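Shift notes (night). Ran Polyketide cyclase while the centrifuge was going.
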Amino acid sequence: MRIFKTLIIIVILLGGAYAASMYYFVDESKNFKIEKEINYPIDKVFSQFNNLQNFTRWNNFFTNSQSIDIDYYTPYEGQGSSMSYVDPKNDTEGEMFIRYENPNMTLKYQLFEDRNENPTLVDVKFKAVSAEKTKITWLVHTPKLAVLRRVENFWTEDRFAENINKSMVNLNNILGNKIEKDNQMAAIKYDSLIVEKEDGILLLGINVSTSNKKDALYKNIVMNYNKVYNYVTMDLAKKNDEFGLPILIMDADNYQDKEVSYFFGVPMSKKFGVTDNNFSFRTQNPSQDYVIYYKGSYAGRVKAIQQLIQKAKKDERRFGDIRQTFIETPLEDQDVNIKLSLSVYK
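Came back to this:
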């Protein structure tokens, strides 16, 4: 009994010491600032923050969970927009509001987490460092915590900073894919042969062998485009701006063969586990390419491919695969809009 009483006294003393230290030495709330720069124009960056549907596609807090359920409320962007979320697996829920907007300059968020009636206040400021670079500053004010919970303030800033670091990687990938698509559409010059240096890319897709008779190849391409697109958007839950334009890779000179083999996939930012054995990753190394943009019937692309091969032979260059990037979605019985790229080397 005496030992039991002694233990109770020790626990009370330790609890009192803990409470006193929290009360006198730990702030009831925290204020901190985090700054980052991203190599994209301010208008492109700002639109990813003031539209909460865009925001949840790259913010690590939301993308890191497969079980989170999000509801968005009108207006869907700018001041007055809001959303709520529930994550049963991680036992969290909350609401987020945009309370103030100064376009391309400032946003003020309120985040209510779980059942806390006091919100986390986040002011985000945007500054154009140059035409192609934006500085983002987060000013964070956390809600007041009860004395016994103030220990959480020791890791709040680190946790927030880690989330931003991961989120910025996601945002960079999304903007890269989106702006690449926009730039490609704006820069197209059809039927002119040009030389381009291509960066390495990582593709997720499928290997295919099929007949090359009449329209059989193109019908097969349309079918496999749908397979890849549905797998990426439905099974993997990727948004359209999280992957690049669809690409078909095949031998440059097998367009006359009765049977052809090709790889059809979409560019991804990183590798991850794939549970469907029909799909795999393929890496394309950086290359120098002879390029022609072509629009017309799929069968008519052969003339453009021949032009690329003839140019390579004239320049005494060896060549590898032909890469067909579909600028517009391939649809049955419709013309194609594609970029034909022939990798060449000495």
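The helical segments are 2-25, 42-46, 52-58, 60-63, 153-187, 216-235, 301-314. The mean pLDDT is 84.
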